[in-house]
Amino acid sequence: MEVRKANKMDMPQVLDLIKELAVFENEPDAVEISVEVLESNGFGKNPLFTCFVAEIENVVVGAALIYYRFSTWKGRTLHLEDLIVKEEHRGKGIGEALYTEVMKFAYNHGLKRVAWDVLDWNTGAIRFYERSGANIMKEWRVVHMDEKGLKAFIEK
Fold first, then answer.
1. Cα 70 to Cα 31: distance, rounded to the nearest angstrom
2. What whole-number distance in Å separates Cα of residue 10 and Cα of residue 64?
3. 37 vs 83: CA distance, rounded Å
């Protein structure tokens, strides 16, 4: 297995992983993004994200997608949007290798924090994060306003 920074040609396989994650999270129809959107937003003059992939025999079997955020308390931080490993490759250290690459990236760039979300029923991931030293913030709630909500809010 090799973990490396993704390139534009990896995006079709990364999109397949994103779709697999949506099925795992019981949201199989929620993915609206396309390969073209990933390519145009992840590569070029001002990329919006960085992606690392885990590859076995030229097949992408895992990915970690990250982007910068700004904290009023800490300054520049990193957000781990998704950490995905194909189901048939879970339990082989691939997720840990991707996670380690993300943490090294943050450390090497002098960032003050890495933040991400985890579903409360994903106990395997929660145990892994806790073992790594991450702080699961149980008192915080994730808040989203989707496109339908935005429209309703603005038009009222």
1. 26
2. 12
3. 19
Beta strands in the chain (DSSP E): 2-5, 50-56, 59-71, 75-85, 114-115
Please identify which of the residues 68, 99, 107, 129 carries the catalytic annotation: 129
Catalytic, 107? Answer no
Q: Is domain 2-155 annotated with CATH 3.40.630.30?
A: yes
> What is the pLDDT tens value at each position of the chain, 156 positions in all?
999 999 999 999 999 999 999 999 999 999 999 999 999 999 999 999 999 999 999 999 999 999 999 999 999 999 999 999 999 999 999 999 999 999 999 999 999 999 999 999 999 999 999 999 999 999 999 999 999 999 999 999
Q: Whole-angstrom Cα distance, residue 32 to residue 19?
A: 10
Q: Would you kindly state where each structural domain of the chain is located, as residue ranges? A: 2-155
- Whether the pTM exceeds 0.90: the reply is yes
